[in-house]
Specification:
Radius of gyration: 26 Å
CATH class of the largest domain: Mainly Beta
Number of helices: 3
CATH architecture of the largest domain: Beta Barrel
CATH topology of the largest domain: L,D-transpeptidase catalytic domain-like
Structural class: mainly beta
Strand order of the largest sheet: 21-20-19-27-22-28
Distance between the termini: 41 Å
Shape: elongated
Length: about 400
C-alpha cells in the first residue's frame, strides 16, 4: 500500500461545529439594553441566577448564565462588562441557560442580570457580579478539516479535532457548545470518533446544493483534567449540486462513476494484491492532490525503501480514502493488470488519464464504496461515518439524540 510522505496534519480553519441533530436556532432569549432598569415593583416571584454565584471568582471564560424563572414567565438576559459594554449571546443547549457569543476576557469582571416578566406584565430582576479566571496554563485547540466557503461532496462529515484528549465526562460539556445549521434542514448528529475527534453527519447523505454553518463556541470551556478550550471558530460551506459517487468492485476489477444517479464512466482498476488487500467499505475522499511522494517507510509498520516491497515514488492524481494509506491514484506501471488482476500495495490503481478525470471531477467528501475485498475497513481508518448504521453512529454522542 502506497503511503505519502505527508504526515497527517490538520488544516486550521476558522470553522465551526454543530450540536444537535437538526438545524439549530437561537430561540426565545431577548436582550435588555445595557443600563436599563426594568421595574422591580411587582408581587411576581423573582427569577434566580443559579450560576455563576454572586461574587464568584475564577469563573471560566467559557461560562454560561444558568437561571430559573416562574412558570409562564418570559426571561431576558443581559451580560455587561466592567466598561459598560453589553456582551452578545443567546439561549444555550439547555433552555434555562444563556451563552455568550464568544469567550469572555480572562481576569475581568462582569454583571449578569435576568429579568423575568410574568403573565401580569410585571417584571422582576436578579443580578450577580463575578470575575473570570486568569488565563489557564493548559489549553486545547479545536481545529476543523473543512474550510470556509468551500464546496464538498455529499458524504462529507463535519470533522473537528482537539489538540489534546478529553475524558468521557467532559464530552457533553464540549458538545453543548457545538452547533450546526443546515439549509435545507436535515437531521444529523455528533459522534465522538475517539477522545480527541468528533464528527457530525446528516442521517442520510447531504441533499444536493445544501449549505451549512458550524459554530464552535469552545473558548474558555472546561475540558477536563485542568484543560480549557483555547478558541472559538466558525465555518460556512456548501454541498455540490452534482452528486458523484464511486464504486470499486474487486470481483470485476472495475471502477464505476455515477453522477446524480446516472452512470457516467467505467474504468478498469487494480486493487491490493492478496498479501496487501484493499479495505472494503463505505469510504470518503478526504484529500485530493495533483501529485505527492509515496514513501513506504512512512506508513503504519512502514517498510524501508531499500528492502523488498519498499518504494519511494512520485504519484499523480492522488485521492486519499484511509489514514492507513489507501488511495485512488494514477498507476501507469500497472495498466496491463487493471481490469484483470490485483497487484497494488492496497490502493486502487487506474490509468493516468482515468485518474486525472476522477481528480478533476471529484471533491473532498465524494463517497467511494469498495466491494469484494477480503478485508473490511476498520472504523476510524478514514472518514468511516457512513460505514456504520445511524443507530450505531448516534451511540457516539455524549448527549441524547432525538428526532
Amino acid at each position: 500500500m502506497l503511503t505519502p510522505r505527508l504526515h497527517r496534519t490538520l488544516a486550521v480553519f476558522v470553522l465551526t461545529g454543530a450540536l444537535a441533530l437538526t438545524a439549530c436556532s437561537t430561540g426565545g432569549t431577548h436582550w435588555t439594553k445595557a443600563g436599563s432598569s426594568p421595574s422591580t415593583t411587582s408581587s411576581s416571584p423573582a427569577p434566580k441566577i443559579t450560576s455563576p454565584a454572586s461574587g464568584a471568582t475564577d469563573v471560566p471564560a467559557g461560562m454560561d448564565v444558568a437561571y430559573t424563572v416562574p412558570a409562564g414567565a418570559k426571561a431576558d438576559v443581559t451580560l455587561t462588562a466592567a466598561d459598560g459594554s453589553t456582551v452578545a449571546g443567546s439561549t444555550g443547549y439547555d433552555a434555562s441557560t444563556w451563552v455568550p457569543a464568544k469567550a469572555l476576557a480572562y481576569g475581568s469582571q462582569y454583571t449578569a442580570k435576568v429579568t423575568s416578566t410574568g403573565t401580569d406584565g410585571k417584571a422582576t430582576t436578579s443580578t450577580v457580579s463575578f470575575t473570570t479566571m486568569a488565563k489557564p496554563a493548559h489549553l486545547i485547540t479545536v481545529q476543523s478539516y473543512l474550510g470556509d466557503h468551500m464546496t464538498y461532496g455529499n458524504a462529507v462529515p463535519i470533522v473537528l479535532s482537539l489538540s489534546h484528549s478529553v475524558p468521557d465526562d467532559s464530552r457533553a460539556t464540549i458538545q453543548k457548545r457545538l452547533s450546526v445549521t443546515t439549509t435545507p434542514t436535515q437531521v444529523g448528529a455528533w459522534s465522538w470518533i475517539n477522545d480527541h475527534e468528533i464528527h457530525w453527519r446528516p442521517k442520510a447523505q447531504w441533499q444536493a446544493g445544501s449549505t451549512f454553518d458550524v459554530a464552535v463556541n469552545t473558548g474558555g470551556v472546561p475540558m477536563g483534567n485542568g484543560y480549557y478550550g483555547k478558541n472559538d471558530l466558525t465555518v460556512s460551506a456548501s454541498i455540490t449540486k452534482n452528486l458523484m459517487s464511486i464504486v470499486v468492485d474487486d470481483k470485476t476489477h472495475m471502477l464505476t462513476v455515477t453522477v446524480n444517479g446516472k452512470v457516467v464512466k467505467k474504468m478498469p482498476a487494480s486493487n491490493g494484491k492478496p498479501s496487501t488487500p484493499s479495505s472494503s467499505g463505505k469510504l470518503v475522499i478526504m484529500t485530493r492532490k495533483p501529485s505527492e511522494i509515496f514513501d513506504s517507510s512512512l506508513g503504519t509498520g512502514g517498510t524501508p525503501v531499500n528492502s523488498p516491497g519498499g518504494y519511494k515514488e512520485l504519484v499523480l492524481f492522488t485521492m486519499r480514502l484511509t489514514w492507513d494509506g489507501q488511495f485512488i491514484h494514477a498507476a501507469p506501471w500497472s495498466v496491463k493488470s487493471q481490469g484483470h488482476t490485483d497487484v497494488s500495495h492496497g490502493c486502487t490503481n487506474v490509468s493516468t488519464a482515468n485518474a486525472k478525470w476522477i481528480y478533476e471531477n471529484s471533491l473532498v467528501g465524494t463517497p467511494v464504496t469498495v466491494e469484494g475485498t477480503p478485508r473490511p475497513v476498520a472504523n476510524g481508518d478514514g472518514w468511516t461515518d457512513w460505514n456504520v448504521s445511524w443507530a450505531s453512529y448516534i451511540k457516539g454522542s455524549a448527549l441524547p439524540v432525538t428526532e
